[in-house]
């Protein structure tokens, strides 16, 4: 929530995983940001489809949430996915945030 409050303004677009942690949407709603979800599909191993994401209009995105290990699926990050996401974030100048909810386990 605090990251959303610090980096998002009303009308900014935020990318949120589906399924994902509900607080990402709640924080975005509090500041009046526009929520845009990206689907994590079981048939894709719950991985981010970076190719499909890169074909979307990302020009209004200010922040993208990812979390690994992913909650609720438990999926681990893949280096090639993270590398591609960093490239997208640089290209479109948005903040890429990895929430690491299980780092102490």
Brief overview, please?
The chain has helices at 2-7, 22-31, 50-54, 79-92; strands spanning 13-18, 34-39, 61-67, 95-99. It is an alpha/beta fold. The protein has a 4-stranded parallel beta sheet with strand order 2-1-3-4.
Protein model, in words:
This protein is α/β, with parallel strands linked by helices and 105 residues long. It has four helices and four strands; from the N terminus they run αβαβαβαβ. Strands 2-1-3-4 form a four-stranded parallel beta sheet. The longest helix has 14 residues, at 79-92. It is globular.
Radius of gyration: 13 Å
Which structural class matches the secondary elements?
alpha/beta
Helix content class: 25-40%
State the low-pLDDT regions, or none: none
**Mean of the pLDDT scores?**
93
How are the SSEs placed, and which strands pair?
Layout: H1 2-7, E1 13-18, H2 22-31, E2 34-39, H3 50-54, E3 61-67, H4 79-92, E4 95-99
Parallel strand pairs: 1-2, 1-3, 3-4
Descriptors:
alpha/beta, globular, 105 residues, 4 helices
């Amino acid at each position: 929530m605090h990251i959303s409050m610090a980096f998002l303004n009303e009308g900014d677009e935020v990318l949120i995983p589906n399924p994902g942690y509900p607080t990402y949407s709640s924080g975005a709603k509090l500041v009046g940001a526009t929520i845009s979800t990206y689907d994590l599909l079981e048939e894709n191993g719950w991985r981010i489809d970076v190719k499909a994401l890169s074909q979307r209009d990302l020009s209004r995105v200010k922040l993208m949430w990812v979390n690994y290990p992913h909650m609720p699926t438990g999926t681990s990050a893949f280096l090639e996915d993270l590398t591609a996401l960093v490239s997208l974030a640089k290209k479109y100048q948005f903040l890429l945030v990895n929430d690491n909810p299980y780092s102490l386990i």
